[in-house]
Specification:
It contains 16 helices and 15 strands. The chain is of the alpha/beta class. Among the domains are: 178 residues, Rossmann fold (3-Layer(aba) Sandwich); 99 residues, Up-down Bundle (Four Helix Bundle (Hemerythrin (Met), subunit A)); 47 residues, no CATH class.
Length: 465
């Protein structure tokens, strides 16, 4: 399998081995999560699923930033603690992404659970001369690391531009905080921790270096996140980890692009933030997940009501095709198999093409197109293929969709027992004789059992209510 490495700017093969160790940056928990967060969560969950399909054992870590400037400001504004704010929005995030069939990571570490590890990491950087203290603040000294800027590919001139208000105490404008001395609002939000340098809290970037190393070791295989994290977060993270361990800390850096709103990037200033929970009031989580995979992960994805409506119709077409096959399988199991009138060998080719698309830089749009081709074929042969052939089509379809994370909770259409089978036959005869009262009574009997009868040109089929 090949994946694009942000550091080298080229496709690189993932090493063939038993285990893949992956770290993906999670949310800063100060507000309800938006569809940009959803895109990252869904993409890396799909990446993980495909790696597992290929036979890898994946150790997957997604952190939560539960102490940060934004969290503290919200806590002070609402008269709450940092912990109360963070715990609320972590829980809401997990609820949201569960609706999108995003599986829990192997580990979901939080910053506040790793303060001693962070202090130890910062202390070692100080000892090595990569960091310095000013009034209880600890800064990483960027000129001490000669590879700085290689990940984001920014020039020295770009790197010297101030992203925040300049701090004259810094030795270099590019230096960034590893540890921050406590301020009044930190104390109000109960977001302070004891350290050798006085009370304070971690800087943003240090947390991921510490937690990734703790759970995955150094170097590890894949580090992921949204494109907006390349600079400064991942650039700084790479610098401090490389400086401490003396090796490239990550083999492959992977970043997904933004979700755009009618061609504009989401931002609070434009008032166009679309929250996951708001979409889930109108669309199922699987429809949103399907939509988020319709663009290649390294391309922008434009969100609009029209776009998600198109995704809903496409998703429902796939679901109907899968249901038709499943209903026919149940029918043949109940009433007996038939001799095949079609060749379905090409289903193997669809599966191969699907895997090839995913192996080439996780091309989910191409994979989805192949799934639709499979659905088209299924609809074409559903009433002429044999039971074993339909089972092969169903299995292939479910494998593809499972990698994409849709139709997860599918409940197989049941084979009917003799009593129900005879009632179906009786109903068919009643309909032939235009005895619709009896046909309706039998239909209602099945409805009470949770089964919906469906009249098709080929006779009665059924599905779960």
């Amino acid at each position: 399998m090949e994946i694009y490495n942000t550091l080298t700017r080229k496709l690189e093969s993932i090493e063939r081995k038993d285990e893949i160790r992956m770290y993906v940056c999670g949310i800063t928990a100060y507000d309800y999560s938006h569809i940009g967060h959803a895109r990252s969560a869904v993409f890396f969950d799909t990446f993980r699923r495909f790696l597992e399909f290929l036979g890898y054992r994946v150790i997957y870590v997604q952190n939560f930033t539960d102490v940060d400037d934004k969290i503290i400001k919200r806590a002070v504004k609402e008269g709450k603690t940092q912990k109360e704010i963070a715990e609320k929005y972590i829980a809401e995030y997990m609820k949201d992404v569960q609706e999108l069939n995003v599986r829990r990571a192997t580990y979901h570490p939080k910053v506040t659970d790793h303060i001693p590890d962070i202090i130890d990491f910062v202390g070692r950087l100080l000892e090595m001369g990569h960091a310095y203290e000013v009034d209880g603040d600890i800064y990483f000294h960027v000129p001490s690391f000669s590879h700085y800027g290689e990940l984001s590919k920014q020039s020295l001139e770009e790197l010297n531009r101030h992203r925040i208000e300049p701090d004259e105490r810094k030795k270099d404008v590019k230096d960034f905080a590893l540890w921050k001395a406590a301020k009044d609002e930190d104390i109000l939000a109960k977001a302070v921790f004891d350290s050798p340098w006085g009370k304070g809290r971690p800087g943003w970037h240090i947390e991921c270096s510490v937690m990734a190393a703790k759970y995955l070791g150094v170097p590890f295989d894949i580090h992921g996140g949204g494109k907006d994290l390349i600079f400064p977060h991942h650039e700084n993270e790479r610098a401090q980890s490389y400086a401490l361990y003396g090796v490239e800390p990550v083999r492959i850096w992977v970043h997904n692009d933004f979700v755009m709103i009618r061609g504009e990037k989401m931002s609070k200033s434009l008032g166009n933030i679309v929250k996951i929970r708001d979409i889930l009031k109108r669309y199922s989580g699987e429809v949103l997940r399907y939509f988020l995979l319709t663009a290649h992960y390294r391309s922008p994805l434009d969100y609009s009501e029209e776009a998600i409506e198109r995704a809903k119709k496409a998703y429902e077409y796939l679901r109907t095709a899968l249901l038709n096959v499943d209903m026919e399988i149940a029918y043949l199991k109940t009433f007996g198999d038939r001799e095949s009138k079609v060749e379905v060998a090409e289903v193997e080719k669809y599966m191969k093409d699907f895997v090839d698309a995913m192996e080439h830089d996780l091309n989910t749009p191409r994979a989805i197109a192949i799934l639709h081709t499979t659905a088209n074929f299924a609809n074409k042969v559903v009433y002429t293929a044999s039971l074993s052939q339909l089972e092969e089509i169903f299995s292939t379809f479910k494998t593809m969709s499972g990698i994409l994370g849709i139709f997860e909770k599918w409940k197989r259409v049941p084979e009917l027992g003799n009593e129900d089978k005879n009632r179906i036959i009786e109903r068919e005869k009643a309909r032939t004789k235009r005895n619709f009262d009896l046909a309706d009574r039998i239909r209602d009997e099945f409805t009470e059992k949770g089964i919906i009868l469906i009249d098709t040109p080929k006779g009665t089929r059924w599905r779960w209510k």
